[in-house]
Amino acid sequence: MTVDAISTEEGSSTAAATGAPSIAVALARWASTTQPSQADLDLADRSLLDTVAVALAARTHEIRPVVDALDTQAARWAALAHVIDFDDLHLPSTTHISTVCVPVALATAGHDGERAARAYLAGAGVMARLGTALGWSHYTAGWHATTTSGAIAAAVVAGVAHGLNQEQLTNAIALAVPASGGVQRAFGTDAKSLQVGLAAQAGIQAAQLAGAGASADPRAVEAWMELLGGDPGHPLVTDPWSDPAMIPDGLAIKVYPACYALQRPIGALRETVGEPIAADQVAAIRLSTPRGTVTPLVHHQPQTGLEGKFSLEYAAATALLDAHSGFRAFGDEAVQRADAQRLIGLTEVTLTDETGDGLLVGAVEVEVDLTDGRTVAGSLDLPPGSPGKPPTDAEMEAKVLDCLELGGIKGIAPSDITWARAARLLSTHLAPGV
Questions:
Q1: For the segment 343-392, what is each residue's pLDDT rounded down to a tens digit?
Q2: Do residue 190 and residue 328 come from a single domain?
Q3: Burial 400-412 (b: 16+ CB within 10 A, else e)
Q4: Closest Cα to residue 196, out of 183, 207, 206?
Q5: Do 370 and 281 touch, CB atoms closer than 8 A?
Q6: pLDDT tens digit string along 206-242?
Q7: Which spans in 135-179 are helix H?
Q8: Could you give the angle at the alpha carbon of 150 between the alpha carbons of 408 and 148, nearest 5°?
Q9: Number of Cα atoms under 13 Å in the Cβ half of residue 162
Q10: Residue 198 CA: distances (Å) to CA of 104, 201, 344, 366
Q11: What positions does the domain MmgE/PrpD N-terminal occupy (predicted)?
């Protein structure tokens, strides 16, 4: 059955819940009835622009032949939006919300821009709530939180896009539970982004089944969450209206195409030093940051672009040397250049034991000793692109243009990426074999 064949008629009865409404019932009711504010719609527009640009950047990625084998557009688009690790991030849940929800919204709502944006926000809100209830311990246990909560979110996006009633949407949420998995052991392989594509595909199928009349026990969501170590009593899932935002705490946009743990140190050094400086003007670099914020940063003497994306020392080098730390700055040649390697060797890192969860605990402190005897110092708690410090129009435009250049795509401006046009753009440039 195609997505267009989803029924909007009353489906089979959901298993009767006892006591308080189940998580699935509460989330389905919330997703069906909550109306986005103008701020929510503005956030949706930014998420669309960011996600579509990042997916188009992956057009020439080596994974394309594998991704082309996926069955649906949504699965292919979602995998490509995630593969270069430049997609947005919901910090409280440690999930890449838009890489799942934008492709599903575009694939199921087509060229109806208003419906697509509304479906995106509904699914994104559910994903943020589920991921937050699963918690930081869920992520640190090794689960890929984007895919554990992503399949259910995809079911909500597809269900809202096709007008499922609340009972059908409740069933769709429960029917997505079997696909709600994914582990970090997949990181560093094709499986990481493919997990995201498969979650998107599974969510659409769950909505199809619910629309066709399939029933499910809504309490499956509570059982699933308990098995994964989450908190089924978290107010964001038992009472989704407890936070008025469609996406609680907003989304972080990556300004630099590297691990999110590098966004803050690069930003701190740029703000502290200002304009790029020559390597021979630097005598020493000192960085101090909470220990937990560098967990993914495992490369201390990087030699490749991929290693540079996970190197705090290289973050210091590109922040000082490059006017724009874009894709070129994270290529093999850029990491291997003599000036960068010199600064890597001059960088001293101190890790503090400040407690807390997440990648933005505390602040990063930076000091740069210059060869003329001066020392410049600064600190930063919120990196550029974080919800509390959203990207400027200039930063977003630079990112989009960088992505389009990497994907070898010409003739598209950021203003062309709208909810009504984006599905056609992706269909044209990311069709199998193109």
A1: 999 999 999 987 766 678 899 999 999 999 999 999 999 998 999 999 99
A2: no
A3: bebbbebbebeeb
A4: 183
A5: yes
A6: 999 999 999 999 999 999 999 999 999 999 999 999 9
A7: 136-140, 145-148, 150-161, 166-175
A8: 125
A9: 30
A10: 11, 5, 39, 41
A11: 78-222
Same-domain check for residues 85 and 228:
yes
Of 197, 182, 165, 81, nearest to 131 (Cα)? 182
Tokens for 316, please give them. Answer: 């210091």
C-alpha 336/C-alpha 148 separation (Å) is: 37
CATH of the domain at 310: 3.30.1330.120
Hey, what's the torsion of the CAs at 412, 123, 187, 309, to 10 degrees? Answer: 50
Residue type, position 162, single letter: H
The order of strands in the sheet holding 364-370 is: 347-352, 282-290, 364-370, 375-380
Beta bridge partners of 89: 252
- Whether residues 268 and 237 share a domain: the answer is no
Beta strands at 282-290 and 347-352: parallel, antiparallel or unpaired: parallel
CA–CA separation, 415 and 425 (whole Å)? 12
Range of the domain at 85: 3-255+392-429
> Which tokens belong to 24?
């699935």
Place 29 in a pLDDT band, splitting at 50, 70 and 90: very high
Angle (CA) 172-174-178 rounded to 5° is: 105
Looking at the structure of the chain, the number of domains it has is 2
Q: Phi, psi (5° rounding) for residue 125?
A: -65, -40
Decide: 116 and 110 in contact? Cβ < 8 Å. yes
Other CB atoms within 10 Å distance of the CB of residue 107: 27
Give yes or no: residues 233 and 290 share one domain: no
The answer to whether 63 touches 257, Cβ cutoff 8 Å, is no
With beta carbons less than 8 A apart as the criterion, state whether 89 and 132 touch. Answer: no
pTM of the model: 0.86
Contact 257, 328 (CB under 8 A): no
- Return d(Cα 41, Cα 45) in angstroms, integer: 6
Residues with Cβ within 8 Å of residue 64, at least 6 apart in sequence: 58, 80
Total residues belonging to the chain: 434
Give the other-Cβ count within 10 Å of 355's Cβ: 10
Are residues 264 and 248 located together in one domain of the fold?
no
Element containing residue 46 per DSSP (H, E): helix 38-57
